[in-house]
Amino acid sequence: MFYVCSCSLEYGSNNQEQDIIIPEYSFLQAEFTQYESGKASMTMIAAGIEQYRDDDVLYGTDITFSVYDDDGSISADGVCDLLSADTNTESYILSGGISVTGHKEQLSFTGERLRWNGESEQLTGATDDVVSIVRQGDSRVSVVGSGFAASGVSRTYVFSGAVSGVIETDE
């Protein structure tokens, strides 16, 4: 009988460059304020913010944000677990524990994944993602559905999938 055994392992060495991706910037307990025409237009507080080399996207965790009107009043605010923000394309992806309130409209959105396109002022969810909307005021709305899309321009929203809920009016 004749047996042959062989083993090859790649142990690496201390001199080899590792493919570990490390953020170029990393901030903990960060607070940001954006100014337009000398007035605060948006504030964001994050447990952590990271940006990577050759990537114009900021990634944040445990986000709280507020958007302000020209008169300084809060027009919208919200929270999410994770944020991906590309300020060049004005594309913002919110994930996990999302709650956003539009104060003028008395409208609140909750969900697990939403995308805001600042150029087109569109807030959308994936086709299968469930979004909940609650509206107070003259007509009260409480609906849950999938395939959510909302327009900041026309102030309308639609669901392309199944929807359930209650709509009440004072009439």
Can you describe what's shown?
With 171 residues, this protein is mainly beta. It is built from no helices and twelve strands. It has strands at 25-36, 39-51, 57-68, 74-86, 91-102, 107-117, 122-124, 130-135, 139-146, 148-151, 156-159, 163-169. Strands 1, 2, 3, 4, 5, 6, 7, 8, 9, 10, 11 and 12 form a twelve-stranded antiparallel sheet that branches. Strand 10 and strand 11 form a beta hairpin. The termini are far apart. Mean pLDDT is 86; it is low at 1-11.
Give a summary of the structure in a few sentences.
The protein is 0% helix and 61% strand. By secondary structure, it is mainly β. The radius of gyration is 23 Å and the shape is globular.
Task: List the defining traits of the structure above.
12-stranded antiparallel sheet; globular; mainly beta; 171 residues; disordered N terminus; single chain
Topology:
Blueprint: E1 25-36, E2 39-51, E3 57-68, E4 74-86, E5 91-102, E6 107-117, E7 122-124, E8 130-135, E9 139-146, E10 148-151, E11 156-159, E12 163-169
User: Based on DSSP secondary structure assignment, what is the total number of beta strands?
Assistant: 12
Helix segment tally: 0
What is the makeup of the main sheet? Answer: 12 strands, antiparallel
Mean pLDDT: 86
SSE order, one letter for each helix or strand:
EEEEEEEEEEEE
Percentage of helical residues? under 10%
Name the poorly predicted regions.
1-11
Molecular shape: globular
Through-space gap between termini: 95 Å
Q: Tell me which oligomeric state these chains represent.
A: single chain
Query: Which structural category do the helix and sheet elements fall into?
Result: mainly beta
Computed CA radius of gyration, to the nearest angstrom: 23 Å
- Strand proportion: over 45%
